[in-house]
Amino acid sequence: MARTPAPTALWPAPHASGAVDATVHVPGSKSVTNRALVLAALASEPGWLRRPLRSRDTLLMADALRAMGIEIEEGVGPDGTGEAWRVLPAGLRGPATVDVGNAGTVMRFLPPVATLADGPVHFDGDPRSHERPLHGVIDALRALGARIDDDGRGALPLTVHGVGALDGGPVEVDASSSSQFVSALLLSGPRFNQGVEVRHTGSTLPSLPHIQMTVDMLRAVGAQVDTPESGGEPGVWRVTPGALLGRDLTVEPDLSNAQPFLAAALVTGGRVVVPDWPARTTQPGDRLREIFTEMGGSCRLTDYGLEFTGSGAVHGIDVDLGDVGELTPGIAAVAALADSPSTLRGVAHLRLHETDRLAALTKEINELGGDVTETADGLHIRPRPLHGGVFHTYEDHRMATAGAVIGLAVEGVRIENVATTAKTLPDFPDLWTAMLGAA
Ligand SMILES: O=C(O)C1=C[C@@H](OP(=O)(O)O)[C@@H](O)[C@H](O)C1
Ligand SMILES: C=C(OP(=O)(O)O)C(=O)O
After folding, report:
1. Per the database record, which ranges form the Enolpyruvate transferase domain (predicted)?
2. Which ipTM was obtained for this model?
3. Does residue 326 have an active-site annotation?
């Protein structure tokens, strides 16, 4: 098995000698796994999580919940098939210390959980976690009755002084910098004394499908949630207080992590099959069926999974990615290899993701000879012949996979710190070379 390179190493991105033709089993969704862990921890009975994603972000979530007293057993499922984690909820404990790494889901979803602990819970993480916005969660929890010590910047590090319960009730949040503020408050909402009513006050709200994912998963464990889609007021979500059920949940493949593999089919004019692609899902990656079709491919969704085929041509696209921002790096990579320019819109908030993704994509593609400019809310990408060079990744898993896509078509691309893909897809280098080996 290929060894994952050390963080500082340069990984020679494999160049595709022909059209790829492969079946790629994509590991479970980060967003589903981390929501499922939180909901199982807050439930009133044990639950199972099958095919969970085992990656840096999800192991940080599991360890954080363990630090607060939840038992999570990693093993195989009750019928002996595949990996499954058993979550045994318990009274939430403090004092505890949580390392959030650079996981948005951990830094946003867990402070509300910590208000239910019976003592202080200290949160800290990677240097970048100190820069990512958290003010929406901090201010809302304070308004709902929590005591939180921070350094006044509305960011990590901070301590939530849990007292075993939170009043809850109505609260206003400007979630224009991250949908995760809304998801965070909703996920713990059933355990607040009065539930929670979240009213978004900002002018834009990114990543709506991820909020819908939160709502669907809450309902699946028995919570009552009123939403704008279910006839409620626009921009308002209401969760009724109540006990949550322990469930047996199978995690869908991570469709955003399927992106580089589908992109490989697109840029090489090949074919990639992703088994177990869900027929219905709230994952933003499902939009790739439409976006990559517009960019030149075609797809067929069957009971087995998704078959995606490239035509040999790659077209530019003008698209608003506000709902599906995490797809931007991979789309930008394909756009840099297209036969016409692209405009990616609606993603100003990506400047506050794992890195400033708009600046990073612009710089790295341009250093390979590209012509990318930043706009107020996205990127203009004018394809140019690219050449090899080092593609820096800024500890951003999606920068690394974007660079790998470019490397398929451009000889001599070397990816700095490909190991950063461990945030959500630790097997990436092996899956990538296996896909090419099958060509
Ligand atoms: O709730 C989630 O699981 C996520 C929501 C989105 O965050 P933002 O709304 O901050 O973009 C997305 O980009 C992130 O990768 C995962
Ligand atoms: C933005 C992302 O992650 P996070 O959950 O850390 O916000 C991402 O995975 O693209």
Report:
1. 17-430
2. 0.99
3. yes
76 secondary structure, DSSP code: E
Residue 241: is its pLDDT beyond 80? yes
Q: Tell me how far apart the alpha carbons of residues 112 and 304 are, in angstroms, rounded to a whole number.
A: 39
User: Which ligand is nearest the CA of 103, by number?
Assistant: 2
Phi, psi for residue 365 in degrees, rounded to 5:
-70, -40
Q: Which two tokens stand for residue 204?
A: 């834009």
- Site to probe by mutation for ligand 2, drawn from 102, 353, 356, 398 as the one with most ligand atoms within 8 Å of Cβ, is 353
Whether the CA torsion 49, 52, 54, 59 is positive or negative: it is: negative
**Within a 10 A sphere around the Cβ of 152, how many other Cβ atoms?**
6
pLDDT at site 208:
96
List own/partner pairs for 140-146 with CB under 8 A and 24 or more apart. Answer: 140/171, 140/172, 140/173, 140/181, 140/185, 140/198, 141/111, 141/112, 141/115, 141/166, 141/185, 143/171, 143/172, 144/115, 144/168, 144/169, 144/171, 144/192, 144/196, 145/115, 146/115
Of all protein residues, the one whose alpha carbon is nearest to atom 3 of ligand 2 is 104
Query: What integer is the mean pLDDT of 187-198?
Result: 98
Instruction: Name the token pair of 258.
Output: 């399927």
Q: Which ligand is nearest to the CA of 357?
A: 2
**Nearest by Cα to 341 from 367, 323, 319, 361:** 319
CA of residue 383 relative to chain centroid, distance:
28
For 94-126, write each residue's pLDDT tens digit: 999 999 999 999 999 999 999 999 999 999 999
Q: Are 2 and 419 in contact (CB under 8 A)?
A: no
pLDDT of 59 strictly over 70: yes
User: d(Cα 109, Cα 39) in Å, to the nearest integer?
Assistant: 10
Indicate the domain borders of the chain.
10-28+253-437, 30-250
pLDDT for residue 232: 87
pLDDT band at 82 (very low <50, low <70, confident <90, very high): confident
Q: Considering only the top CATH level, what class is 30-250?
A: alpha beta
Which class would CATH give 10-28+253-437?
Answer: alpha beta
